[in-house]
Amino acid sequence: MKYLIACTLAGVLACSAANASELRVALNEDPDLLDPAQSGSFVGREVFAAMCDKLIDIAPDMAFVPQLATEWKWSDDAKALTLKIRDGVLFHDGTRLDADAVKANLDRYRTAPESRRKGEVKPITAVVVVDPLTVRVELSQPYAPLLAVLADRAGMMMSPTALAALGDKIATKPVCAGPYKFVERVAQERIVLERFDKYWNPGPYAIDRVIYTPVPDTTVRLAGLRSGGFDIIDRLAAPDVAAVKADPALQYVEVTALGYYLMSINLNNGAAADNPLAKDKRVREAFELSIDRKILNDVVFEGKFVPSNQFEAPGSRYWDAAHPVPARDVAAAKQLLAAAGVPHPAFTLTSGNSNTDLQVAQTLQAMASEAGFEMKIQATEAATMVQKNTSGDYQAALAIWSGRPDPDGNIAIWIACDGFLNWGKYCNAELDKNLAAARTTTDPAARAKLYANAADIYLADRPELVLYHFKWLWGVSRKVTGFVPNPDGLIRLAGMKVGS
Question: Starting from the edge strand earliest in sequence, which strands make up the sheet with 124-131, in order?
Fold first, then answer.
């Protein structure tokens, strides 16, 4: 119960009685680097939602809406996007946001050695300052996902003054242009933000201080909410929904997510790829046949989530109905393993250390063992796991992706040859051709056909196994008002208040 220890040592969480303008949020895990260029965790995006405004934001209906850019317009050939920058915006260090600052940030995402955004902004060939409040983003080819990219980390603006001073160490003291500024971070204990009194749109923000605390244990998170130690807990465990609904001091909030949960397989990234699962796609097919996604959903999530095998959710525009979720067939799995010459393939599955992640891993382990798999589970703290996976220090790993409004941000990131989450270094030239073509057209029917072609390839190769699409589940104190859930799962503090 580390968060209680943190309260005792630092007095920051004020566990028994919080100031009315203080919001205490329990996160599922500790974020990785608080730098949009280097971050790769969803919980990092939760903190960024309060701290780092983007050029474009996403409304609850998934429409793109202005934030630091007040308007934008495509060129006739769709190879350039011109953005008008909001006047009067200050970064937390007092530096003024202008077109030069936007260029500095976008160029950093494109070229900095530490940037993990390079794949997302690869089509950008130049960022041109048209005038002090206008930039033109020039592209090598039409790029349909660009608005979605600028509505995420690659659209977050940091102070060029702070970047010049700190460089790739900016995560130690991030300086953005959002409604809340960074105060301190104690790893594994807390991240503290305070309201920025010179924010360009102060009206909707009544909360003075926000404290994020990583609490991987779902039981501890719920206990903290019920005792008044937290005001909001994210990723409420499905079995705990009934307890929250039954507590008159709490409110239950849910929304269908864009995101999904998958199992990444290391096919070609270092020595760890030397195992039967990586070497033979028949073994990967056998593993998929050994599991039942509906059972997984029922056992761990009480049937609340959506069993899925594709990056786009079943029934959505870019989901391919020709490839439904496969049924479990243990006998067929055993036959495939016999044909591959490995009746008892062994591998290690890396999992997050939260209760839910471990339940998923253990359920998969139990099902796969019936087909002959000898699967070990290695529980790892989330940020450490991302680092290890990126370096190839894993055989298979469970991962969550919070989802994006454009399909490219859900598919290519994992399986394109240069996908920034392609930890296992899977690469298929024909697949990349389809993904690249889908980026260059805005016609939904044409894109759907290209993504169907992609599904034909990746569902046969199985570099990643999507397991389910989920819902965002929150437990919220009745003292909190104005919380509007968003399908991207991020807590937006506009309009929120904390009463006594």
Answer: 69-74, 80-85, 134-139, 124-131
pLDDT digits (tens, 9 = 90+) for 141-161: 999 999 999 999 999 999 999
C-alpha separations of 237 from 286, 323, 350, 472 in Å: 30, 29, 20, 10
Q: Domain spans of the chain?
A: 2-52+178-231+479-498, 56-163, 258-471
Amino acid (1-letter code) at residue 153: R
Spans of the chain, pLDDT less than 50: 1-20
Q: Rounded to 10 degrees, what is the CA torsion of 218, 386, 54, 118?
A: -160
Q: What is the pLDDT of residues 109-153, one digit of tens each?
A: 999 999 999 989 999 999 999 999 999 999 999 999 999 999 999
Query: Counting Cβ atoms within 10 Å, is residue 331 exposed (0-12), middle (13-18) or buried (19+)?
Result: exposed
> Residue 108 — left, alpha, or beta (φ > 0 → left; ψ -120 to 50 → alpha)?
alpha
Is the Cβ–Cβ distance between 21 and 208 less than 8 Å?
yes
Structure-token pair, residue 359: 């339940």
Q: Which helix (H) or strand (E) is 51 found in, with range?
A: helix 42-51
Q: What are phi and psi of 209, to 5 degrees?
A: -145, 140
What CATH superfamily is the domain 258-471? Answer: Dipeptide-binding Protein; Domain 3 (3.10.105.10)
What are the backbone dihedrals phi and psi of residue 207, each rounded to the nearest 5 degrees, phi first?
Answer: -80, 130
Give the CATH superfamily of 2-52+178-231+479-498. Periplasmic binding protein-like II (3.40.190.10)
Return the amino acid letter for 329: D
The superfamily (CATH) of domain 56-163 is Dipeptide-binding Protein; Domain 1 (3.90.76.10)
